[in-house]
Input
Amino acid sequence: ETGVTQSPTHLIKTRGQQVTLRCSSQSGHNTVSWYQQALGQGPQFIFQYYREEENGRGNFPPRFSGLQFPNYSSELNVNALELDDSALYLCASSFPNQPQHFGDGTRLSIL
Amino acid sequence: DQQVKQNSPSLSVQEGRISILNCDYTNSMFDYFLWYKKYPAEGPTFLISISSIKDKNEDGRFTVFLNKSAKHLSLHIVPSQPGDSAVYFCAASAITSGTYKYIFGTGTRLKVLA
Output
């Protein structure tokens, strides 16, 4: 059984650029959640997708957007990058009402 | 507003002894609680969970206790092993709301001394 995989593992961008992060969910999991983890903090919920529809959103601006595909993989897009967007971005997959399983994350650095 | 709080940033315990990690929450709508362990350069790994209809759940060396009246949960690790050294996050969710987002605490770094 393949776990949650994220790509790329590291990324460096400059302010104002756009970025796309990718996530392959664990086999069969139809729910994907994205979290942002700043240094020294716990993961913060960005949004969740269930069967290709957004199913809840945290306190993040609209320049954070996402997609879920029919195979349940997902993308997180961030436009107009700001310095404060530097963080570890975590993807988690699950069945509804079951514990979420996390990937190892994408480390995004904004210069 | 920090809805889930882990007030101890770090904890050191001797190998073989009990580790007790604590977590407090403020939102009475939370009905599902989890503990995750995180090693450097890896994503959080699910350890154990508990529903609000229970007050205890046990899985091997790991036991989670929930005190709803105090809005407090704790993770007990017995016996502690050096491989348990990691950052531990508690998380809470209001599953009945229809979304399954987790609210995480800031983590407690556990160091088990050999």
